[in-house]
Amino acid sequence: MEKVPMTAAGHEALIEEIKHLKTVERPRIIRAIQEARAHGDLSENAEYHAAKEQQGYTEARVAELEDKLSRAEVIDVSKLSGDSVKFGATVTLVDEDTDEESVYQIVGELEADVKAGRISITSPIARALIGKSVGDSVEVNTPGGGKSYEILAVSYS
């Protein structure tokens, strides 16, 4: 059984999402199914079919999240240190072509959110950064072509 690495914050967010799905979404969907059933003929009842589809999606999501939670390897980033990039690191990069600075934290797949500055450990940029240190240049193959970055800072917090 493969472990799923995640930060403590990501683990907590997973627990909260499961709690929300079970305590808010499930009851709402059950009410929607009951209301649709009250309308009579289910074979041509679009609301019933939509609610059942939503129920299937919600139950699948709960099962997926519970599976990931059971295999979670929670890594406390605040206890990590060092100069090289590893899981949980917050890395400041500068694009060598445009001089544009970016800051990313390397996190587990489920908690990745590029807009919030969190990239997945499995992303091309994170894979290129792992093991590198401040001052190193890295080449990243992206869908838009190759990019060169220089690592300006590495921190764990």
UniProtKB/TrEMBL annotation:
Signal peptide: none annotated. One of its GO terms (molecular function) is DNA binding. Residues 4-74 form the Transcription elongation factor GreA/GreB N-terminal domain. One of its GO terms (biological process) is DNA-templated transcription elongation. Keywords: DNA-binding, Elongation factor, Protein biosynthesis, Transcription, Transcription regulation. Pfam families: GreA_GreB, GreA_GreB_N. Residues 82-156 form the Transcription elongation factor GreA/GreB C-terminal domain. Belongs to the GreA/GreB family. Necessary for efficient RNA polymerase transcription elongation past template-encoded arresting sites. The arresting sites in DNA have the property of trapping a certain fraction of elongating RNA polymerases that pass through, resulting in locked ternary complexes. Cleavage of the nascent transcript by cleavage factors such as GreA or GreB allows the resumption of elongation from the new 3'terminus. GreA releases sequences of 2 to 3 nucleotides. NCBIfam families: greA (TIGR01462), PRK00226.1-2 (NF001261), PRK00226.1-4 (NF001263), PRK00226.1-5 (NF001264). This is Transcription elongation factor GreA. The gene is greA.
